[in-house]
TrEMBL record:
Organism, as annotated: Brevibacillus fulvus
EC number(s) recorded for this UniProt protein: 2.7.13.3
Pfam families: HATPase_c (PF02518), HisKA (PF00512), STAS (PF01740)
Keywords (A to Z) from UniProt: ATP-binding, Kinase, Nucleotide-binding, Phosphoprotein, Transferase, Two-component regulatory system
Domain Histidine kinase: 22-224
Protein name: histidine kinase
Reaction catalyzed: ATP + protein L-histidine = ADP + protein N-phospho-L-histidine
Amino acid sequence: MNQDKQNFQISRLASVGQIAAGIAHEVRNPLTAVKGFLQLLQEQAPHTYLDIAQSELDNAIVTLQNLLNVAKPDMDEEPFEKIKICTEIESILNLFQDQTYRVTIIKDFKQTETELFAKKNQIKKALFNLLKNSFEAIPDKGEIRISQYCSDTTVYIIISDTGIGIPEEKLIMLGTPFFTTKTDGTGMGLAQVFSTIYQHGGTIEVQSEKDQGTTFTIQLPLELAKEKRVKQLNLQYSEDQTLQEFLLINKEQFEQHLLAEAYHLKDLLSEVKRIGSIDLLNNAHKLVHMLIENKDYDIINFGKQEGQIWAKHSTLNLAIKLEWFQAIRKVLWDFLYNFDRLNQVHNKPEDFYQLERQINTTLDIFLRHFFMSYTEYKDQLLKGQRDMIADLSVPIIPLSSTISIVPLMGTIDNDRANTIQQKVLEQIGTARIKTLIIDMSGVAYLDEEIVQHLFKIIKGITWMGCTPFITGIRPEIANTMVNLGIEFNQQTRTVGTLQQALEELGFKVNGNV
């Protein structure tokens, strides 16, 4: 994985993690209170429903705690210690002995005595999650190959399976909390994997091919890089200067450091401005001054406005915005550190901590309203698209003031059958349709349940005083109707082709009356 891509993934994971952690923290507190009240109720009046509610609430709290652990792994006080990767992998594989009857494990370990300085439990959990995913990705029988080797500075761990694979378009989102390719997954497992590897100064690369399998390649340094610290910057400062004045006079330096922090977004600034008329640099200054001045109401409106603007333009990648937020946060704290360093004679420690609480709280408010606005607009857009698709899937074409046609094509499932029922009956009532031609020549197959549903719709059409003309029934569908014993009532007309129905109703077709 090249450095740019790695930095992008780290920044994206950190950004999403911070947002998720804020939400998880806010949700967990009221849930804990609810848990306490449930326990009191259970003591006063025990009931099975209370047991179920307590169990489900415990599951929710555990999920939120897992999210907090993934989003903020640095909160974990586990110390670093020397571990042997091969030994830990062997102990983890013992947990999957019930799967080895169907999945063959092939191990290729080299330099097995090499020791890594790491947080043991976090690394073990990450390897467990990867192996668990590999076993689950193999629906029947298959193979998992685990390799380990070392260079002078790096430990390599490769876990490869012959499972169902991951679609190429979804690879970029792996490691993001709540993103998963499983029907019943939460995405927390891989989020923990990526978070742990990055925290240890490592990299993780994924290669996958649908129906062929997936390979995870992990690189971990034998010696951890030095911890990143705030930067001491050469900035302008004069005595008794306020923080707002300090940021204003160093506006150009702020932009330079912001662009350096988000260096691979430089080329996207003009593109974002062209597509969405969004000036990221100007908006960054606006956001920073709102944070410093603690303008909650203004920042709520700004967050809503920004969220809607980004939601309107599908070409604007949300990951860009997340990374930009992260860069702003980092650079702002570098500037706050330098302001405090230059102004330390006049500042008390409690002032700095108060400012830290104010800024982080206000930024969380902005992010919350940004994503609420973004999601709300996307939901409305999605609903509009679904409604449009529903209308297109059941086109009701008027041929005269009292005659219409519904051409049915493609696959009809339960959802579409319900849409047909709703649209057809509504339109008959609204447009006073007396004759409705239902052309089924474009429908190749219907299962028994859908045939019965359509038969009920036809009954409903006759109840509304409309005569249905059914055309184009294929032999396969007719055979299903015979097996089900379905018979149309006397009001329903069946005709072989659409042309025959139109001719019978007096329309000109190919020059005939």
